[in-house]
Design goal:
The chain is mostly helical and 88 residues long. 68% of the residues lie in helices and 0% in strands. It has helices at 14-24, 29-36, 40-80. 9% of the residues are buried.
């Protein structure tokens, strides 16, 4: 897992985080179920919830970054009168 992505795990429940990290290590649903004493259906449910939360946060970050870039480009255009590669 990438170092910059770890903050996204803070939104997960402790069980979702545990399963997410085990899946990240390459464990299968069956291995995780055996390790944690849960059913494969429960593992699959936790995994789906965790993925949705992380995906939603990732989409939000990407959306906000694109908005900032758009706002920055408009500011440069306003100040410089034109868009250029090297700013003004």
């Amino acid at each position: 897992m990438q170092k910059n992505s770890k903050f996204m795990l803070d939104i997960l429940s402790p069980r979702e985080k545990e399963i997410f990290l085990l899946k990240d290590k390459g464990m299968s649903e069956r291995q995780i179920a055996n390790k944690l004493g849960l059913s494969r259906v429960a593992i699959r449910t936790y995994w789906k919830r965790a993925r949705k939360k992380v995906d939603d946060i990732f989409k939000l970050i990407c959306y906000n970054e694109s908005k900032l870039k758009t706002k920055w480009n408009k500011t440069i255009e306003y100040r410089c009168g034109t868009r250029s590669k090297d700013g003004c």
